[in-house]
Specification:
single chain; 466 residues; alpha+beta; Aminopeptidase; Aminopeptidase i, Domain 2; 2 domains; eight-stranded mixed β-sheet; 21 strands; binds manganese (II) ion
């Protein structure tokens, strides 16, 4: 009997919860790390806010936008919506980099360009949702507005309403159950609330002059003008994002989990940021942390993974280190690089276990999640890491005592999804997905295990250190 047990231990893959594996001291570090993460999450509800916070935290650690040739820490932003951090290493650049890429945009509602109207004596704002949301999750919750508005004269106004406890919030009113039977309840879930009905309640006081037209709309415009000097045309040159107004909270009697908005993918963003900030002055490999926008809508556009931002960063590196960024050198450097696509995975939800094939699904509390391939239905649109690269990462994580699991997203024919991995793999670099497994992914209140968050940070740090 004893022999069989020993044999089992030697031969079988037996996953164990992180909680069982960490020492009391390590657990304490994990919990302290998550405290910082929660503050970051609350202060970073849009891609622009992530960029602002990444810049200010990295500047404190000596990352500079215009470094001297001797400086080893470089920071570059792209239109305030994506950002790269680089620590130059001792190896020649053409031997490649260690790159960790996360995305900093999250599913949300955007105001339409001409959003303001009134109806039945209420003032409302029209929206167009961004990314893969389940619309029913966005009604009847408190919402905050985070906007960047370019005024007529070109000045920029950053606006946040609904995050301070003294602020008002906004909401989308759902229909009462007494009257929803035909129009909502008997429909398919995805058809019950249509996009055009995601309108935000924004006021109910009429403009005092009873002769005025659209008095409710006018009153809000008057208020916006008096407070911020805005006119209706200013909405046309604005990006106003609507996000949940609640704060990140601990979950459970044991406070073991974190609930909050935007953990896809800001959990990986924060872990990557802390990993690169923790690196010594000059590591062996040049380390790059790339924080990109637009993943949730396909990585298109000049701030997403399909833009040439990374190439620009790399040619800067050649120049900063006194070398000529020839296209050949650039290609070699990127081709020889090793990368992690730092993105979340979906953990088994106890109520919907059937969508997963459990032997290959992520579990909350079992460590950072590696995903060899993404895509769906026959591995279409996948980045598929080579066995050699998976082997390399496996050895590294085991050596550095990173607790990890391997998972794919959902049953073979159930669905699936992609990340930015495939776009950057086009340069020829080795690429694998690696991140935290979430419950309630893409909902306004996503859930992560504190231990998994910490193991994600440990994984990225181990990767940079090599
Ligand atoms: Mn993601
Ligand atoms: Mn996502």
């Amino acid at each position: 009997m004893k022999k069989t047990k020993e044999l089992e231990k030697k031969l079988k893959l037996i996953p164990k919860p992180v909680w069982d594996q960490l020492s009391a001291r390590e657990r304490k570090s994990a919990l302290a790390f998550c405290k910082g993460y929660k503050s970051f999450l609350d202060a970073s509800k849009t891609e622009r806010e992530v960029v602002r916070n990444v810049v200010s935290l990295s500047q404190k650690k000596g990352f500079l936008e215009t470094p001297s040739e001797a400086s080893l820490r470089y920071l570059k932003t792209n239109r305030d919506k994506s950002v790269a951090l680089v620590t130059v290493g001792t190896k020649p650049l053409t031997e490649g980099f260690r790159i960790v890429i996360s995305h900093i945009d999250s599913p949300r509602l955007d105001l339409k360009q001409n959003p303001l109207y009134e109806d039945v004596d209420l003032t409302l704002l029209r929206t167009h949702y961004y990314g893969g949301i389940k619309k029913y999750q966005w009604v009847a919750i408190p919402l905050a507005i985070h906007g960047t508005i370019i005024k007529k004269d070109g000045t920029k106004l950053n606006l946040i309403i609904g995050e301070n406890d003294k602020d008002p919030v906004f909401t989308i009113c759902d229909l009462l159950p007494h009257l929803s039977h035909k129009i909502q309840d008997s429909k398919k879930l995805q058809d019950a609330i249509v996009g055009e009905k995601l309108t935000i309640l924004a006021g109910s006081i009429p403009f005092p002059d009873e002769d005025a037209k659209e008095r409710f709309k006018l009153n809000v415009l008057d208020l916006l003008n008096k407070r911020w000097g805005l006119v209706e045309e200013d909405f046309l040159s604005a990006e106003i994002e609507v996000v949940p107004a609640f704060k990140t909270r601990d979950i459970g009697f044991d406070e073991s989990l974190i609930g909050g908005y935007g953990q896809d993918d800001r959990v990986c963003t924060y872990c990557t940021l802390q990993a690169i900030l923790s690196l010594q002055e000059q590591p062996e490999w040049t380390s790059i942390a790339l924080f990109l926008d637009k993943e949730e809508i396909g990585s298109d556009g000049n701030t997403g993974a399909k833009s040439t931002f990374l190439e620009l960063v790399v040619s800067d590196l050649f120049r900063l280190t006194g070398q000529t960024p020839t296209s050949d050198a650039l290609r070699q450097a990127l081709f020889n690089s090793k990368a992690i696509s730092a993105d979340v995975n979906g953990a088994i939800n106890p109520n919907y276990q059937d969508v997963h094939e459990k032997q290959n699904a992520a579990k909350v509390g079992y460590g950072v999640c590696l995903t060899k391939f993404t895509g769906s239905g026959g591995k279409y649109n996948a980045n598929d890491a080579t066995a050699e690269y998976v082997g390399e990462i496996r050895r590294l994580f085991n050596e550095k005592k990173v607790i990890w699991q391997m998972a794919e997203l959902g049953k073979v024919d159930e669905g699936g999804g992609g990340t930015i991995a495939k776009y950057l793999a086009e340069y020829g670099m080795d690429m694998i997905d690696c991140g935290t497994a979430l419950l309630g992914m893409h909902s306004p209140f996503e859930v992560a295990s504190k231990m998994d968050v910490y193991e994600t940070y440990k994984a990225y740090r181990a990767f940079y250190e090599g």
